[in-house]
Amino acid sequence: MTYALIAAGVLYVLVRRFMGEPLNARDLLAPPAFLLFFGIRAMDEFHVAYLLPLAAGFAFGAFRGTTIRLFERDGHLWQRYTPWTLVVWVVSIGVSFGFMFLFDHHAPTQLSIGVSMLGELCTVGAKAVNTGLPFAPEKLSNGRHGPS
Predict the structure, then answer these.
(1) Which of 8, 40, 79, 116 could cross-link to 57 by cystine, CB 3.0-4.6 Å?
(2) CA-based torsion, 84, 93, 52, 50: positive or negative
(3) Using CA atoms, how far apart are residues 87 and 130, in angstroms rounded to an integer?
(4) DSSP helix/strand/coil, 39
(5) Selection from 20, 23, 7 nearest residue 130 by Cα
(6) Coil, strand or helix: which one is 22?
């Protein structure tokens, strides 16, 4: 059940980002924070064998962040995944499965995806700040936007 929820959440984020969405700080930070929190909680113990796959996941995430298109719309930043973003996702998933077969122990899926999305957050966050454009305002529960 947990894996189905994680897969649904990741799919939801992917679809939204391929369609293009406003880039706000909460949406940039929330997915990796959520996945890292639950990934760490799912670990019984930490194995040194986790280091290489997690480092590779972070690197793939950071590289994936370079493929994301940032642009201005309505006076603030928007993001959109590109076909290259999908290519990097697919390759990184393949590498993750390769590590699973190489090592007896593998980090929880939530942790692996969270570390990858943390790498993406670092690259996209740096790119966003360098544009000089403001992040999109947060959406309020009534669908309206709050202060920027």
Answers:
(1) 116
(2) positive
(3) 25
(4) helix
(5) 23
(6) strand
Q: Please give the model's pTM, rounded to 2 decimal places.
A: 0.85
Asked if 65 contacts 128 with a C-beta cutoff of 8 angstroms, the reply is no
Q: Do residues 36 and 114 lie in contact, with contact meaning Cβ atoms separated by under 8 Å? A: yes
How many C-beta atoms lie closer than 10 Å to residue 2's C-beta? 11
DSSP conformational letter for 145: B
Strand partners, 73: 76
- Residue appearing with tokens 């390769």: 98
CA distance 87 to 89: 5
The C-alpha atoms of residue 31 and residue 36 are separated, in whole angstroms, by 8
Mean pLDDT, the chain, integer: 88
Q: pLDDT confidence of 143, banded at 50, 70, 90? A: low
In the chain, the DSSP E strands lie at: 21-22, 69-73, 76-80
By DSSP bridging, strand 76-80 and strand 69-73 are: antiparallel
Range 114-140 average pLDDT: 93
Which is more confidently placed, 14 or 121?
Answer: 121
